[in-house]
Each structure stands twice: as C-alpha cells, then as structure tokens.
Design goal:
Blueprint: H1 2-15, H2 18-27, H3 41-48, H4 50-74, H5 80-95, H6 108-121, H7 126-143, H8 146-163, H9 168-184, H10 186-194
Helix pairs in contact: 1-4, 1-5, 2-3, 2-4, 3-4, 4-5, 4-6, 5-6, 5-9, 7-8, 8-9
Length: 208
C-alpha cells in the first residue's frame, strides 16, 4: 500500500503543469496556444522570456528529484528499483499529465531531475549525469537546437550507462528515458530533417 500510495503521489507531482500555470499567472495566456505549443520550459523561455523559463525549468527538475529522493525516503522505499519506479512515474506524469487531458511536456527537465536525485543516493551514476549534461550543453551551444541536444543526450544515455558499468536497473532506466524522449520529439526530428526547427537564442535581448 505504501508503494502504491507513493507511485500515485509521484504521478501527481510529475503532473503539475508548471509551464501552463506560469503562462496563466504570468501573462494570462494558455502556453499551449503559443510558440511550439509544448507545455515545457523551452516554450516558456520562447514565449514568456528567460526568467519564467528558468523558473519552470527548475520546478520541472524538482518534479523528478523530489519523488526519487525525499518521497522514497519518507516511505521507506529506498532500494534502487523503487527509486527508479518513482522516477519513471514522475516523468510519465509530466509527459501525460492528468490535469491537461493527459497531454504534457517532453520530459527532459523532469528526467534530469530524476538523474540528479539518483546521484544523491547512488554515487556511481554521477559520472553518467556529468557526461549527459556535457553532451547536451555542447550540442546546444554549437547548434542552438534544444531538441537536437535532447535527442542526442537521450540516445547516448543508455550507452553511457553500459560503458560505465551501471547496475542493470539503471541501464533499463537509461533505455526507458531514451525511448520516452525520442518518441516525444518525433515532430522535432521531422522539423530538424526538413530544416524547419527553431533555434533558441540564449543571449537574445528578447528573452528577459
């Protein structure tokens, strides 16, 4: 019962539509009707500006971190497997939120929060997090494409898990996150191949 309660609560935490909430309260708009239409930090960055985008990014990271670390500890579900279950469910909540008819974001920030949370309890995965973040940053800074950086980092995540000889459960997590992220970026991949994907101008004066 404790595990079931934890999974339900984790899903609800992951489901909090932070981008939608910020759109409503910050500018009185439905973020789904602007920019890319995605309920995520990148679209908030484009539509509302840098400060709201950063705030949504941090909150979406916390949606993955809190269940994996604090909720799992509070409920006594401290094994690697249970933390991974909580992490996957948190990302599912973000991607398919009950509060927006099961249509949510793409799970990048929340997946990152899960990985950060796991590093606080499983030291061996810290090298994985370091490599994934560096890959994402290098790709984004070189191209300006958030989607390309996210797909590349996600594709390499399970490979890095294998190369660094992580526990089997973590290798499975890497594969699941890879599949989730690639599936959620199908439209972006099509736009990238067609040369129609929008870049994010990190230092643009518009993004304040």
């Amino acid at each position: 019962m404790q595990l079931l309660f934890g999974l339900v609560l984790t899903y609800l935490i992951g489901s909090i539509p932070t981008a939608y909430i910020f759109g409503k309260f910050y500018k009185g708009i439905d973020i789904r009707e602007h920019g890319s239409g995605n309920v995520g930090a990148t679209n908030v960055f484009r539509v509302l500006g840098k400060t709201p985008g950063i705030m949504v990014l941090l909150l979406d990271i916390l949606k993955g971190l809190i269940p994996v670390v604090f909720l799992a500890d509070m409920l006594g579900q401290t094994s690697i497997l249970y933390r991974i279950f909580f992490g996957i469910v948190a990302v599912c909540g973000h991607n398919w939120t009950v509060f927006l008819q099961f249509k949510g974001g793409k799970g990048i920030a929340t997946s990152l929060g899960v990985l950060i949370g796991l590093t606080l309890r499983i030291p061996s995965i810290r090298i994985v997090l370091l490599f994934v973040v560096l890959i994402w940053l290098c790709c984004f800074l070189l191209t300006g494409y958030v989607s390309l950086a996210s797909v590349l980092a996600a594709t390499l995540l399970p490979i890095i898990m294998v190369v660094t000889d992580q526990p089997f459960e973590l290798k499975c997590l890497g594969f699941v996150f890879c599949v989730f992220i690639i599936l959620r970026h199908r439209v972006n991949v099509k736009r990238l191949l067609a040369g129609q994907e929008s870049r994010v101008k990190l230092f643009s004066s518009k993004n304040k």
